[in-house]
């Protein structure tokens, strides 16, 4: 399987240098990451929202090694919120954050990440929107869920992400569905050991459906993070059976993948949110997109052959 190999490459400085040096790489990266600065991304936000889509914004970058870098990540999100304030889009544009960017892996990282992310959540609430805490590898999740619970005391709209391939996730979904929180369900994109996660696609798909049923039948707000047409159809069926209205759940897909499907779902009245990343530290994010879907890797390789 190529996925684990690509994920390993995403942590390699040597591979980062090699891939970044290929002239065509930037052209392909632009498919998934449409800008490096807030100024770059504002026209994208305006274009997508004008088409009836919603967004969740991600400032890319995860390898934080100092508290100063974590503070800089916080400030990057605060700068984004400052720009969003002028657009007056409210909850149509939310934010997704990885707590690793806020210092979670450093000494005293749990407290540091909470201290850094809280001002971002506060600022988002002040302009009528919210923040979702992205899930990372399984060793970080207890900390992420604890921070999520703490933030929801003052900002109950704060969301979190759960990953279908982890054995623990059905229990997490039951707990979160009962609490009425906003929960994005994804398959999972990190290399996890067989002791904690399903390894086969059919097992992950089955788990995804089981967990999605829990969320749809619960009291929370499900966010379906998938590009899989079959899972999208199943989500619609489960929502109908649970008696949910179209504004009581939403679909989420990545910028640059299945754009026509984004517009189709929005045209049918569904809430369709596009996960849109930007920033200069794009390598790790880009490599995970290649690992998640073979078609993305084929797209990259064809581009290298035709334009490299």
Which structural class do you get from the secondary structure elements? alpha/beta
Unreliable segments of 5+ consecutive residues? 303-308
Number of helices: 13
Rg, Cα atoms, Å: 18 Å
From N to C, what is the helix and strand string? HHHHEHEHEHEHEHEHEHEHH
Overall form? globular
**What's the end-to-end separation, in Å?**
25 Å
Strand content: 5-15%
Helical residue percent?
40-55%
Strand order, sheet with most strands: 1-2-3-4-5-6-7-8
| Overall average pLDDT | 88
Count of beta strands:
8
Largest sheet: 8 strands, parallel, barrel
What features would you describe in this structure?
This protein has 13 helices and eight strands. It has 308 residues and is of the alpha/beta class. An eight-stranded parallel β-barrel has the order 1-2-3-4-5-6-7-8, surrounded by seven helices. Helix 6 links the parallel strand 2 and strand 3 (131-133). Helix 8 packs parallel to helix 9 and helix 9 packs parallel to helix 10.
